[in-house]
Amino acid sequence: MNESEPRPSVRQRWLGERLLEMRLTAGHTSLTSAAKTLKRSAPSISRLENGLVALPVRDFPPILDGYGVRDTRTRERILAIASEIQQERRGWWVEYADALTPSYIDLVRLESTALFGRSWELQYIPGLLQTREYALNLGLALNQHDDRGQLEQFVDVRMHRQSVLDRETGPLKLHTVLYEAILRQPVGAPNAFARQLRHLLERTEGPNITLQVLRQPSRPHAAMTGSFTLLDLPSLTVAQVELMTSTIYVESEPDVARYQQAWSDLLAQALDPKESQRLIEQMIEDLGA
C-alpha cells in the first residue's frame, strides 16, 4: 500500500481476509480465475481483499454466489459487516481525521456501533470514564502531543467518544476492571484526582456501566501481559491493545478467545461492584479532598 492509499479499517481488513478465504475455498487460487467467475477485474478483487475499497452492500450477494457461499449465517454476517463499513465512513470523527492516527480513528469507529465493551486497565482510568481534567493531566504526563493545542483537540475527541455511553439508539454497555494501583496513583492534584474518582462512582450509578477493582497484589492471571479492551460489535468481536505509539486490533476468533478467557480470569479475582465502590470511596477519603 503506498502512502496515498487510505488505511483500511479493522472491519475492512476482516472482510478482506474472509473474502480471500472464500476465494481459495472456491478453488480460485489466482485472481484471474476469480475475476472471470465474478465478472470483476483482478485488481478490484485484490483491492477488496486488502481492505482498500468499500463496496456497496448490494455488490456482495453476487460475490458470495460466485464463490458458492450458501450458508445463511455466513452470508448475513458478511452483509452486516459490509453495511457497517459504509456507516463508519460517516460520523463526527471525520472532521478530526487529519489530527488522529488511523488506529485511533478505528477505535472511535468501533465504539460507535459496539454493543458491549469489556475493559481491563493496568495503568490509568479508561478514556470512556475520564473527566476532562483527568484526561488533560494524563496527556501532559504521557507527553504524547507537541503542544497544548494538539492535546486540547485530542481531549475534545475523547470527551466526544463518551457519547456512546448515553446514545439514544442504545448506550454502550461497559464493564471495566481497574487494577487497584490506578486508584493509588494520583493524576494531577489531589483535588482533581478526587473529582475523577467521584466521577467513576457517579457513572456506575447508571444501568449500563459496571466497575470492578482487582486488588494488589493479586494472584497470577492471564491478563498480566497488559491492558486490553474487548468490543462486541453486532457481527464481530475485536480485542484492542493500546501501545505507547500505536494500537493493535485482534480479530481472529482463536486469538480473541484468549482475551475472553483472560477476562474471565480477571472477574474470578476482582472485587464485586459493591466492594469496589466502597474501596473507591475509601480512596477519596484518604485523599482528604
Model description:
It contains twelve helices and six strands. The protein has 289 residues and is of the alpha/beta class. The chain has a six-stranded mixed β-sheet, with helices on both faces. A hairpin with a 4-residue loop joins strand 5 (237-242) and strand 6. Helix 7 crosses helix 8 (148-161). The protein is elongated.
Number of helices: 12
Mean pLDDT: 91
Total number of strands: 6
**Spans of 5+ residues with little confidence (pLDDT < 50)?**
1-5
**Rg measurement, Å:** 21 Å
Biggest β-sheet description: 6 strands, mixed
Range of helix content: 40-55%
What form results from the Cα inertia axes?
Answer: elongated
Report the β-strand fraction as a percent range: 5-15%
Please state the structural category.
alpha/beta
Order of neighbouring strands in the sheet with most strands: 3-2-1-4-5-6
Q: What series of H and E elements makes up the topology?
A: HHHHHHEHHEHHEEEEHH
**What's the N-to-C terminus distance?**
53 Å
Which key terms come to mind for this protein?
289 residues; alpha/beta; six-stranded mixed sheet; 6 strands; 49% helix; 12% strand; disordered N terminus
Q: How are the elements arranged and paired?
A:
Elements: H1 10-25, H2 31-38, H3 42-49, H4 60-66, H5 72-88, H6 102-113, E1 116-121, H7 132-142, H8 148-161, E2 173-179, H9 180-183, H10 190-203, E3 209-214, E4 228-232, E5 237-242, E6 247-250, H11 253-269, H12 273-287
Parallel strand pairs: 1-2, 2-3
Antiparallel strand pairs: 1-4, 4-5, 5-6
Helix pairs in contact: 2-3, 7-8, 10-12
